[in-house]
Amino acid sequence: IKPVLKRVNQWKDLKNFRNHILAHNLRVGEDSIFGYADKSLVYNTPSTLSELKLLCELLSLITQNIGVEFPELEQQLNYAETINDKLTFPTGEVDFDSEFNLVAEQIKVLGLTRTQQTDLSA
User: Fold this and answer.
1) How far is CA 114 from its chain centroid?
2) pLDDT tens digits, residue range 50-103?
3) Of 93, 69, 65, 92, residue with least CA distance to 77
């Protein structure tokens, strides 16, 4: 299992990403991530579909080999399935401009005015 953990640990910010973004509602400690106006938070985590697939398959390797370390758990495992069998990442493209503008117009109809696009190229 050490080679798997060594590779997973190359994504140095998995724990922080989990804590800040997923578990603690977009907060770093007591502060909202939106309070960091002067800087962007950077997370070294899987960010592409291929990286997500790699992470899933690495976790499957751990699951498949857990019986070596914990034989009493092996009876409960279904080796015919992997995490990737349980997850689907749609790869369809979206027309960003069209979809964003449609939603922005719907926001304006509701009387809200903040519909500026975020510059994601930075």
Assistant:
1) 27
2) 898 899 888 878 877 777 777 787 777 766 777 777 777 777 777 878 887 888
3) 65
